[in-house]
Specification:
Largest sheet: none
Shape: elongated
Number of strands: 0
Radius of gyration: 22 Å
Distance between the termini: 52 Å
Strand content: under 5%
Number of helices: 4
Low-confidence stretches: none
Helix content: 55-70%
Structural class: mainly alpha
Number of domains: 2
Length: 111
């Protein structure tokens, strides 16, 4: 008897691949820059963009990734510092503090 022929592996859906597999796949495409600095969602989006795959169906709630959340936190901290220098009321400073804390909790959940 001869060698068994290798069956062609079906390509896994992108959503089912791990981040490591997605990085390897993106590197084989060769058109994506900064693969190792991306997280899973960013890799999937970049691969879909290159392959011309459109997202199917609207998503109910768009979840922000950690980087976007941290950018919002930086903006709120700057606004809070401005409010302190402008001698704003304690209530407005507390509002900024609470918003920052909520965003920090969302970054922990998103990670």
């Amino acid at each position: 008897m001869g060698k068994k022929e290798k069956k062609e592996k079906k390509e896994k859906p992108l959503d089912r691949m791990t981040a490591k597999e997605l990085r390897e796949y993106a590197l084989t495409l060769g058109e994506i820059v900064g693969v190792h600095g991306m997280n899973k969602e960013e890799l999937i989006a970049a691969i879909k963009e290159i392959k011309g795959i459109s997202d199917e169906g609207p998503k109910a709630a768009k979840s922000l990734n950690v980087r976007e959340l941290k950018e919002k936190i930086k903006e709120l901290r700057a606004r809070k510092a401005e409010a302190r220098t402008a001698a704003a009321t304690r209530q407005t400073i507390d509002i900024f503090r609470k918003r920052i804390n909520r965003l920090k909790k969302r970054t922990r959940k998103a990670a």
